[in-house]
Amino acid sequence: AKDWSSEYEAKQPKSENSGVLDSLGDTLMNTFSKVRKRDERFVEMRETVARLEDNLTRTQKLYLQVTKRQQDLQQAYEGLGTGLIDLGDIETGMTLGLVEAGNALKAHHVALKQLAEQTEDLFLGEIEEYILYCEAYLEMLKERDNKQAEFEDLTEYLQQTAAERDRLTNYQSAVGVTAVTNFIKGKVRDLRGVDPAVSRQQRIEKLAERIVELESAVDSSREGLEMFSDLMIEDYDVFGHIKQHDFKRAFSALATSHIAFYSRAVDIWKSVIPELEKLPVD
């Protein structure tokens, strides 16, 4: 996520009108909220990444339970091994067999510990990295939505400003809330003795200046949104390819570590059988 942000900031076009947004006032900025026209590409991305995060989180939680039980077994095997060795000191006729069995349990404990360490490094570590990646990507999607909402609101404000200029130019009457606002402003101008014709011309000129500023702001906002969107699409495509490779490696490591563990366990317990067969049986 840091790479996306730094790359976006580095590529973001600089504009002399970068302060236009600040000049619009808190009222306009507070309207920046929800995206009106959602891009289905990013909707699908959000759903896919959110599902992946949910599945990975549940996988991590369940395997941590497995790891916890493996740790409990490690202690149990080690304790049981020590107990059999101590028992061998008492049962002198079975000392070698009990000691071998106790050592086997201790060796089994070591093998199980190695299995837990390997799966934590090679499997759980990979899962955790992808969970963090999903969280970061979802945050970046939120940031992109904010940029799109900003662009849409700026565009709407530009259209409203242009419509107000055209209305004044064509001597048309305002309607709705605008009519009420203009009526009040007109009364204030009358009280101040301002010539309506002069006032209208001044308003048209101010609106024309604001339109130029807004057009520049809209262009800058659109360029930033397009650049940010392109970076996210590119990263998402790369993510899809890398994910397959990393998951294959992670689950292969999981399988390989378990194969090595059970192979080691077989060898450990096979070594005990000869000593157990030597035990005298009445």
Would you write up a description of this structure?
The chain is 85% helix and 0% strand. It has 282 residues and is an all-alpha fold. α1 packs antiparallel against α7, α4 runs antiparallel to α5 and α5 packs antiparallel against α7. The N terminus is likely disordered.
Shape: rod-shaped
**Which radius of gyration do the C-alpha atoms yield?**
36 Å
Mean pLDDT score: 82
Order of helices and strands: HHHHHHHH
Helix amount: over 70%
Beta-strand content: under 5%
Low-confidence segments = 1-9, 13-17, 25-29
Q: How many strand segments? A: 0
Termini Cα gap:
72 Å
Write a brief structural summary:
This protein is mainly α.
Topology:
Elements: H1 2-11, H2 20-23, H3 26-29, H4 40-90, H5 95-169, H6 176-192, H7 196-270, H8 273-277
Helix pairs in contact: 1-7, 4-5, 5-7
Keywords:
single chain; mainly alpha; 282 residues
